[in-house]
Specification:
Blueprint (H helix, E strand, L loop, with lengths): L3 E10 L2 E6 L2 E6 L2 H4 L8 E10 L4 E6 L2 H10 L7 H10 L2 H9 L3 H5 L6 H11 L12 H5 L3 H12 L4 H11 L6 H14 L1
Parallel strand pairs: 3-5
Antiparallel strand pairs: 1-2, 1-4, 2-3, 4-5
């Protein structure tokens, strides 16, 4: 998996951007939220990426922030939502606004995004409700509880492993106070989960 690309922008044509890194020109597709913040052609850029492998193509998607990439990865796991719709959602609505739509079950706001019909919007709300992390939803009690970098990284890892945000929060609180590394926090949280 190609996790990120750092290089010089050779060309820009929404939604595509070509970045030259190590003599190789990477063609990337980016949501408008990322595209609008790209520097001019010729300047250096660092983008997070996600590679989608299909029978007929390998497509590299680029994101300015980890929150955008995390949401993209969650979206493409929803039945009926492919990379094209996920890119359209990220282009038409911010990460925090998307989280608000899901929390408030605002189907009409989601259907305003091109390619998203009523059934898809309803499925997004149902399936994304438990996948939204505090980082994705623009903060909250759980992210406030994870003040240290180690705690927030451990929290993100637990959510990535499939634990619901509330479960990840509870497991980390059960570890108790003390200065622990990210790895130690994850190990103790998983040991706690195994004992339950």
């Amino acid at each position: 998996m190609i996790g990120s690309v750092r290089g010089r922008i050779a060309a820009k044509s929404p939604p595509q951007v070509t970045v030259v890194a190590g003599g190789i020109g990477y063609e990337l597709e980016a949501p408008m939220s990322t595209f609008f913040h790209l520097p001019p052609v010729g300047d250096e850029v660092h983008l997070l990426t996600h590679l989608v492998v299909r029978e007929d193509a390998h497509i590299l998607y680029a994101f300015a922030t980890e929150e955008e990439r995390r949401l993209f990865r969650s979206l493409i796991r929803v039945s009926g939502v492919g990379p094209k719709i996920a890119l359209a959602l990220l282009s038409g609505i911010s990460v925090s606004a998307f989280a608000q739509c899901v929390r408030s079950e605002d189907v009409s706001a989601l259907t305003r995004v091109p390619g998203v019909g009523r059934k898809t919007a309803e499925r997004l709300i149902v399936e994304m409700r438990d996948r939204l992390t505090p980082e994705t939803s623009g903060g909250g009690a759980a992210s406030a509880a994870h003040g240290s970098t180690a705690e927030s990284e451990a929290y993100g890892a637990l959510v990535a492993l499939g634990y619901r945000p509330a479960e990840a929060d509870r497991l980390l609180k059960a570890v108790g106070p003390g200065t622990h590394s990210t790895e130690e926090l994850i190990r103790r949280a998983l040991q706690g989960a195994a004992r339950e």
